[in-house]
Amino acid sequence: MAEDSMQEKTEPATPKKREKAREEGDVAKSAEMPSVFVLLSAMIILWLTALPISHRFERIFRESFLFDQIPSFTIQTIQQMAVSLTASSFVVLAPLLAAVVAVGIFVNVVMVGFVISPKAIFPKLGRINPIAGFANKFSIQAIGELVKSLFKLGIIIYITWVVIRGELKTIPTLYDESALRIFQFMGLVAFKIVVAATLPMVAVALGDYLFQRWRFEEKLKMTRQEVKEEHKEMEGDPQVKSRIRALQVEASRKRMMHEVPDADVVVTNPTHLSVAIVYKAGEMSAPKVVAKGAGKIALRIREIAEENSVPLVENKPLARNLYKQVEIGHEIPDEVFQAVAELLAYVYRLKKR
Fold first, then answer.
1. Which pLDDT tens digit goes with each residue over 35-60?
2. What gap in Å lies between CA 30 and CA 2, rounded to an integer?
């Protein structure tokens, strides 16, 4: 294990490791992308719907605060007014909020796909460790986030100053304007600041996303030994697979030996090969090979046949053809049908069948 830890992680992550990372909620994600696009889309939608929203709010406030006579204000009436005003405001802003939520979900799905990870939600004790938390404040990642935040703050301050400087000539002319006109001017300036500041943030967000993807790929990289171990787990340990195959062969051999006592004849070569044949008239369309083997297996077939009085017939060409061409449990092919028929006829004559 110590040797594995010293190896360099030079291999790309395997699909299995990527899938495991997704299950744990570990994906290449930039927090900048959703926030920037949500803010930009919210400002665009708000700009397009500002007039109808302002009219609806004007009507809500007029209905809420226009009284035929001064009411008696109590805690209950104030609460009712607050609840009614909040509900009406939410109804007005619901389409805007729904659009913003949809944009946030869409941006996240575009970045990482559709991922639901319960593991990422469960609390981890390591996250509330004060020592580890203090150390993380001075990590390379934390320093990078600090530099990025300062850079964004500098851009916002500079753009805000540029926009306000461009409106300095208009500000003095507002002293004799109505309150509505002043609010409209303030809203327009705020919109210009947000849009002008958000556009450079889009470039920052895209750069951050590319960096997060690169960092994620580097984190997922594996050593060659890890790749080998994973392939071994997926394909199975060669020693275990070899043992399983050996057990399967042994079980198949035992089943085969159980069929030898019921055979009609065993064709031999004479000691190297043995092939047991059975034929049941009316049940089989052709004779069938029920057991075969070479070397020690051939000798064992011969022994079982002798113990059960199954005739042994030496026929080297036929034994070789049957051993090579016919699998256990299969019927004999046409090219050896005549030879096997003559052999069975000979055996039947011996048994007076």
1. 888 888 887 887 788 778 777 877 77
2. 34
259-268 pLDDT tens trace: 888 888 899 9
Q: Six-digit token pair at 202?
A: 């889009």
* DSSP output for 205-240: HHHHHHHHHHHHHHHH-B-HHHHHHHHHHHH--HHH
The identity of residue 23, as a single letter, is E
Q: How many of the other CB atoms lie within 10 Å of CB of 256?
A: 20
Adjacency order of strands within the sheet including 312-314: 288-294, 273-278, 265-268, 312-314
Task: Return the SS3 of 272.
Answer: coil
Residues forming beta bridges with residue 222, ordered by sequence position: 11
Beta bridge pairs of residue 331: 288
**Structure-block tokens of residue 252:** 């198949």
Burial 224-254 (b: 16+ CB within 10 A, else e): eebbeebeeeeeeeeeeeeeeeeeeeeeeee
Angle among Cα 17, 18, 19 to the nearest 5 degrees reads 90
What's the rounded Cα separation, in Å, for the pair 38 and 32?
Answer: 10
> Which of 77-81, 85-89, 292-296 is the most confident on average?
292-296
Residue with tokens 């990025």: 148
